[in-house]
Amino acid sequence: MRRPSGIALDGATLAALADLLTPYVEQESMRLPETYRWKIPTGAPVAPFNSSGLSLADANVQLKRLLSDAWHLSGSDRAALARWYVGRWGGIYANKDETLQGYVLLPEDELEGAALAGVATWSKILAMRNPARYAIFDARVSAALNALQISGGADPILFPDLLSRNNAVRAFQGWVRIEHRGARRLLKDRAYPDYMVLLREVGDRLGHKSPDRAEMVLFANAESLIQRAMVRASGRPLGRSPEGRAQDGEGAAMRSTSTANPL
């Protein structure tokens, strides 16, 4: 019989990961106005949207709620909303219209179990349509979760390597495959559901009403966590990369400098 290629989170493992992640999210949530730098492109398909006086973190949270409201309006063009959020906001332009339409038409519980290869796209759609329940999962977030475990001295349970064109993330993924080749890994088809269980547990502990704060903390601090993990383990720091979320999706294209994450 073929052995499973990974593990699913059980109660004890979930609790251990939540114990590690919760204080980090609590600490770094307060710094999101300074650390979260994902700019919002013009032409958001919702009105009114006025981000004046808001940090980029709060503006992105507000935008996601407005897009969710628009999604649930009778007669809304959900495909257009998905195309704008995944492409213009998220920087992933390679999806075919029929691929996006397929994601749009799937019920949430079925979309949550879609193929991991498209998770950087379909998790954005889930997070937009129901931000109280879902969050984005991409290469930076996955790497951040792995780096946090390694830097904390834990025996890591590795989240899957996701396609990325971010130099720091790719270097870290290669380093982990060598330095932690015997580590336990999550089952790929359970990675997103288990990720969401973890984020919801952290949110419940901190009194957050949605999981996106934890996701934003992981995204914003991915490269610093990678640096910390590699320095503590080997004394060889990585160089910082200017690339952001636009390079953490399948087939992602670089966004213009006016909207690219400067991390």
Question: What is shown here, in short?
Answer:
The protein is an all-alpha fold. The protein has helices at residues 11-29, 32-35, 56-71, 78-89, 97-105, 108-111, 119-129, 139-151, 167-179, 191-206, 212-220, 222-234; strands at 157-158, 184-185.
Question: Would you kindly provide a written description of the structure presented here, covering whatever features stand out?
Answer:
With 263 residues, this protein is mainly α. Helices cover 53% and strands 2% of the residues. A two-stranded parallel sheet has the order 1-2. Helix 4 (78-89) crosses helix 5 and helix 8 runs parallel beside helix 12 (222-234). The radius of gyration is 18 Å and the shape is globular.
Structural class call reads mainly alpha
Which strand order spans the largest sheet, edge to edge or round the barrel?
A: 1-2
Helix-residue proportion: 40-55%
Question: What pattern of helices and strands is seen along the backbone?
Answer: HHHHHHHHEHEHHH
For the report, how would you describe the main beta sheet? Answer: 2 strands, parallel
**Number of DSSP E strands:** 2
* pLDDT < 50 stretches: 238-243, 251-263
**Radius of gyration over all CA atoms, rounded:** 18 Å
Count up the helices.
12
Shape: globular
Percent of sequence in beta strands: under 5%
Mean pLDDT over all positions: 88
Distance between the termini: 45 Å
